[in-house]
Design brief:
Proton glutamate symport protein; 1% strand; 68% helix; 449 residues; globular; disordered N terminus; mainly alpha; single chain; two-stranded antiparallel sheet
């Protein structure tokens, strides 16, 4: 069914408001840096507000989605296919970062002595990296109690509890109907709250950008501009060429997808946090035709395992440090670096500042490159984190549609209508809930709207 869309005035469009807020934040931070720094609480406050609602959004999406799946084997199939996709493209991203850094060689000519580097600046990141072992990461997926993930906001813990509860709810058949009806009804005000809170996005973007420019200054990247430009261009090419080919093979355009999630991309650019866009991204993936159960499994898991931008950054930054300190890595050492990065990028997933922490974890295992060399890029990491987050977001949105198509859980007609503008790009509010159907085997089926 096509829905008519009334064009909003530009000043009411969210991404326009965010763009204006980012520009104002840059101007304030540049001309009045002290004042710009003082606006940091606005950016931090908005991200805290978004994190406040991430746990219930994931829980409700996953539970109601899984409870509507007729075959519980499908849950494992979706999870398995998602992990295959994540591992494949994360590895490709690492390899691309390695190749580009070898071709461009942005660190050549700096000739910095490793002994002259101040290791104290990166000690806190190294300490966090040592705490982020694979075993520790896997054990951390299991929460202390059933309800504690809803309090501490750990995405993978919330996902773990949600999947288990969703399977349990689906397995008890008609007895789970009242609980499922309650969760369906409860999800409506929760998502309405999401849309209300997202109206604060321009304020958060303004505060975050004013602080970033005020504290670090645009000039702070001038001496490392080649690395920053190389990273941005490489990430852009990864999205347009690699993900573009994947999208085309699966029947959609990567440019249409980027246009569709532009609100979320501008929000991520302003706040340097991909988590800020998680709730609205999940809602938009449902709206474009992906089944709720697939969205609930792929998007939250992708936030920990499908970090394309972070992976490009890791190998590129590691080689930059080696080049800047005059260390010539052999092919064997570079392959070792790649293999370690594949593991460490999963071990520190979901940790705040994961990009820098996973880099520290990688360099700690590869003795050829000095960990203290991270001090060279500490000043520009904030600028590079924006590109990491943008690439990660596009990668996860693309993964969701691809996995949904693999599972025959994608409404292709709906997707084409949304991407072409024939249907609303926003999730339609106030749609009456579809009735719950009980299958002959007593499993619960939620009709797709």
């Amino acid at each position: 069914m096509q829905t008519s869309t009334k064009k909003q005035p530009l000043y009411k469009v969210l991404y326009v408001q965010v763009i204006v807020a980012i520009l104002l934040g840059i101007l304030l931070g540049h001309f009045y840096p002290d004042v710009g720094e003082s606006f940091k609480p606005l950016g931090d406050g908005f991200i805290k507000i978004v994190k406040m609602i991430i746990a219930p959004v994931i829980f409700l999406t996953v539970v109601t989605g899984i409870a509507g799946m007729n075959n519980m084997k499908a849950v494992g199939t979706v999870a398995g296919k998602s992990m295959v996709y994540f591992l494949t493209f994360s590895t490709i991203a690492l390899i691309i970062g390695l190749i580009v850094a070898n071709i461009i060689r942005p660190g050549d000519g700096l000739n910095i002595s490793p002994a002259s580097l101040d290791a104290s600046k990166v000690e806190s990141y190294v300490a966090k990296a040592h705490d982020s072992s694979i075993v520790g990461f896997l054990m951390n997926i299991i929460p202390e109690t059933v309800v504690s993930p809803l309090v501490n906001g750990n995405i993978l813990q919330v996902l773990f509890v949600s999947v288990v509860f969703g399977i349990a709810l689906a397995s008890i058949g008609t007895r789970g109907e009242p609980v499922l009806k309650f969760l369906q009804n409860f999800s409506e005000p929760v998502f309405k709250m999401v849309s209300m809170l997202m109206k604060l996005a321009p304020i958060g973007a303004f505060g975050a950008m004013a602080f970033t420019i005020g504290k670090y200054g645009i000039s702070s990247i001038s001496n490392l501009v080649l690395l920053v430009l190389t990273f941005y261009i490489t990430s852009l090419l990864f999205v347009l060429v690699v993900l573009g080919a994947v999208a085309k093979y699966n029947g959609f355009s990567i440019l249409s997808l980027i246009k569709y999630i532009k609100d979320e991309l501008w929000l991520v650019l302003g706040t340097s946090s991909s988590e800020a866009a998680l709730p609205s991204l999940m809602r938009k993936m449902e709206n474009v035709g992906c089944k709720k159960s697939v969205v609930g499994l792929v998007i939250p898991t992708g936030y920990s395992f499908n970090l394309d931008g972070t992976n490009i950054y890791m190998t590129m930054a590691a080689l930059f440090i080696a080049q800047a300190t005059g260390i010539d890595l052999s092919l064997t050492e570079q392959i070792t670096l790649l293999l370690v990065a594949m593991i460490s990028s999963k071990g520190a997933a979901g940790v705040t500042g994961a990009g820098f922490i996973t880099l520290a974890a990688t360099l700690s295992v590869v003795p050829s490159v000095p960990v203290a060399g991270m001090a060279l890029i500490l000043g520009i990491d904030r600028f590079m984190s924006e590109c990491r987050a943008l690439t990660n977001l596009v990668g996860n949105a693309c993964a969701c549609i691809v996995v949904a198509r693999w599972e025959n859980a994608l409404d292709k007609e709906r997707m084409n209508d949304v991407f072409s503008g024939r249907a609303s790009s926003e999730f339609v509010e106030d749609i009456p809930l579809a009735p719950i159907e009980i299958e002959s085997d007593n499993s619960i089926k939620i009709p797709v709207k």
